[in-house]
Amino acid sequence: MIFDNGGLCSHAGYCTARPWHGHPFDPISGKALADDPDLQVYEVETREDGVYVKVEAPDRSPWTVSHVMAETMVNRGITHAFGMVGHSNLGLAEAPRVRAEKNRLNFIGVRHEGVAAYAVPATQRCREDPPRV
Any residues with CB less than 8 A from the CB of 117 and at least 6 apart, and which? Predict the structure, then answer.
């Protein structure tokens, strides 16, 4: 959402507010334009291949039902999982990522559910020692 904040912004008086929390901020500097002590500003680096935001990684993600599901898959011998990641299932995607860091489960992200449905039998047919998926 773009709004006119009465000239508080450094660029033509127009600023941005996130629709979920409504904190107005200057999109160029990232600085809060209101009394927002809880609005955090992160260091941003522009590289040739994209824009990177510096955030501190948590020591360990909290143990959830998704972690139990991923651990059960590993314990059952499943080596590959195909899936589509979106904002509604990021927690579900975190658990396989943790297992992948430990080389215990390979999560292959796809852009459509149908691709995952075809990828499973294709992966099994293309390998001499087919993975359990």
Answer: none
- CA 55, 108, 130 angle in degrees (round to 5)? 145
Rounded alpha-carbon distances, angstroms, from residue 39 to 44, 88, 124: 16, 23, 48
Radius of gyration of the chain (CA): 21
Q: How many residues does the chain have?
A: 133
**pLDDT tens digits, residue range 10-35?**
444 555 555 555 666 676 776 777 77
Burial class from Cβ neighbours inside 10 Å (0-12, 13-18, 19+) for residue 17 reads middle
Distinct helix (H) and strand (E) counts, the chain: 3, 7
Residue spans of beta strands (DSSP E) within the chain = 2-4, 14-17, 24-25, 44-47, 50-53, 80-83, 106-109
Whole-model pTM: value is 0.50
Quick one: which of 30, 7, 75, 6 has its CA closest to 16?
A: 30
Q: Hey, where are the domains in the chain? A: 1-56, 65-126
